[in-house]
Amino acid sequence: MKLATYKDGSRDGQLVVVSRDLSTTHYATGIASRLQQVLDDWNFMSPQLQDLSEALNQGKARHAFAFEPARCMAPLPRAYQWVDASAYLNHVELVRKARGAEVPASLQTSPLMYQGGSDDFLGPCDDILAASEAFGIDFEAEIAVITADVSMRASAEQALDGIRLVMLANDVSLRNLMPDELAKGFGFVQSKPATAFSPVAVTLDELGDAWKGGRLHLTLQSSWNGRKVGMCEAGPEMNFHFGELISHFCKTRNLRAGSIIGSGTVSNKNASHGYSCIAEKRALETMKDGAPKTAYMKFGDTIRIEAKGRDGVSLFGAIEQEVVPLLIEP
Amino acid sequence: MKLATYKDGSRDGQLVVVSRDLSTTHYATGIASRLQQVLDDWNFMSPQLQDLSEALNQGKARHAFAFEPARCMAPLPRAYQWVDASAYLNHVELVRKARGAEVPASLQTSPLMYQGGSDDFLGPCDDILAASEAFGIDFEAEIAVITADVSMRASAEQALDGIRLVMLANDVSLRNLMPDELAKGFGFVQSKPATAFSPVAVTLDELGDAWKGGRLHLTLQSSWNGRKVGMCEAGPEMNFHFGELISHFCKTRNLRAGSIIGSGTVSNKNASHGYSCIAEKRALETMKDGAPKTAYMKFGDTIRIEAKGRDGVSLFGAIEQEVVPLLIEP
Asked: Which of A20, A213, A223, B88 ranks highest by number of CB atoms within 10 Å?
């Protein structure tokens, strides 16, 4: 099934079930009002949502109406945990080489992960608000999963069983704020503003054999100002699968239902696939010519991130955002 | 007023109001069942809780009963944001010098902050579960605040107005896992397991003139295995006050109601105050003798963290935890 959260003026929005082809939707009222409730009590609530989903897909849901992604919040508008990884080592290597930083050998065997802010996510069509273009505004197209409860010390295999939903993410990054933050030694704070997620989050059965070995074997499409800049394969070059990422995180703690785990920027060694973030394009330019020539995003720029099934149908809906200046009242 | 959350088998527990002297408590049923609800709608709900608090303090609340800290979850058992700082530079300098790491000059003017896991907090008397003593289990006694909504670009002064509640934290750290994680460049993940919080969170008016300039001017007491090891002054040496910490965090994003901000380990230059984490004691030993002689916590060790008002009454109740081995089923 496919789940989304409609804006209703509240902090958590209204849970809706969306048809497989993303054409129609139906309020989940009577079953659950918020996605977190469902994740907290999955075994009881998800079969009821599944019944509604089937009725909707068969055109038999009584109060179905047209699905509009622009009315969506993030599937989880706020979450208790958002851990992002950097599971595509090609991305890490490119970006670090370009800034002359080391790539520790440990990254081959131990995933790079960091915790992000989960109190204020963006909907798929919400503006990327920034006070200044000088921050170096970049998109990062990623795959993300939402988990069930996963116990401390879970193995990678056990952790795979804890994946409930899959979605796309735009992990907006402020590149020019990163050097100073990383120099302090504790990772990102200001340089990772609010993250946006795709209109719908989907259960694994919706993905068919595109979900295999804890990876999503699909092409992640990124279009910047209407121009397709990335057609990156999300499956084969993900060095650590989602089960391995979750298991790494759970070595010393439990992960509770509704936690979101990100893959990091999807990245391919073969540069003909393009890029899922501008930093990689700039890294390639720097390594070739000694300096980057592609600028980061400007106010008014747009980014569209989407993944289609082999039948050409959009699986998660598209993230479609515009960079907008933050107006500060005098 | 003083608020706590009683265990009831659910993920979020039951909100209770606690008397000023921590002797009695009363369910907040009829007003709100969970603390996050109150933070989401503070202006409507907090006056009702305040009325109940006054009745309780006057011995007039009808269904009051004895307050038992051991029945408490963290005031917010799970939160949408947990950002910890390292606002006492003496702590940063000690720990970094001991491991031969640089202390960047930028730390004098720009606070060191990092995001932690907020999906699975520990109650004040919950065990610290660890799979191995070899992780280097340490306590960190801290002050923490819970915020209202704070807008992107809020000034330090504006951010101070967004502080709703104050509590204590034990930011458990696994010291021996840190070097490998920090070498990767993105901060902590495995080395910061679940954080514990004091039994009650209190509004600023309960603190009187101990709350001044965004700092808590009280002595934070830490007792390790029953021996008082820390009597650290939390006020004067906090290099960045809570408004400055929140404002720093909000430079590029909103902070939403129910976010928790930590001070970092409370630390004094004058070593006669003792220590709020073992790492500082070991750092002093290393600088003096070339090697630490105090070992980290062992299974069975206990830690008690508390702050008393000038009248000698415990303000937040005590964090009292034991380190317990995690048993893994075969």
From this structure: B88
